[in-house]
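Limitations
The structure tokens in this dataset are predictions for the assembled complex, not deposited experimental models. Users should treat interface geometry with appropriate caution, especially where small molecules or nucleic acid strands are included. An illustrative entry is reproduced here so readers can see what is and is not provided.
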Amino acid sequence: MKFADFVSTEAIQADLVAEDKDGVIREMVQSLLDAGGVQEEEFESIIKAILKREELGSTGIGRGVAVPHTKHPSVDRLVGTVAVSREGVDFQSLDGEKVHLFFLLISPPDRPGDHLRALENISRQLRNDTFCRFLKQSKSADDIRQLLEEADNNQFGA
Amino acid sequence: MDQPSASRILRVLNPEGLHARAAMEVAKLLSGFEAKVYLVKGGNRVDGTDVLEILSLGAMQYQELIVEACGAQAVEAVEALAALLESSFFDESM
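Predicted assembly:
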């Protein structure tokens, strides 16, 4: 699975304003709403579900990366977005490091395979230090879009 | 003297595969042993204590993983991982 298969490109954010976990999740879901990736009436319910998942254990998986996610019946295909925080956010990560790179995923309850394949793609690309560094240094959503496209074309050798 | 080593083929029984929370549990478990543990799937060999690396395997239900360990507690680490993967842990949630 490629980034293009699940990342809502209009929702990508290069400079998150939020400074805490709740704020980051709210800001990212808001950008998905603005991009038409989720329905307005489901907005609060999606945020609540993602935060509930975080309560089970942080999705801050280390190396400055977090993958907040949930299943939600209001989506009929996997939708996601990418955001970067310049300052970094305390996400209660495994390694205690601040998180700079966020990949948020919302998947239909009956499609766990797609969710797993998206996580596989994200983590494969992030294993590449160059991709990681360029993503952190992105100055605009367009920079990020271009990077994801390059990653989809295997330009980082993942 | 050579370090003890152990390896085994394990099957993922989790209905939803090695998703984020499951990968974290694996990493946490393996970090507790005095052993270097690698997981191998389809030509990819990754550090079993690194969540990002485990997720990069994209291990789905019923797929096989080879676990390779070396170090003082290599055998114990492989045993513990086998018990965890076979327990179908975290099957109802991501």
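Some entries come with short summary sentences. For this one: Chain B touches chain A at residues 15-21, 23-24, 27-28, 50-53, 55-60, 93-94 (CB under 8 Å).
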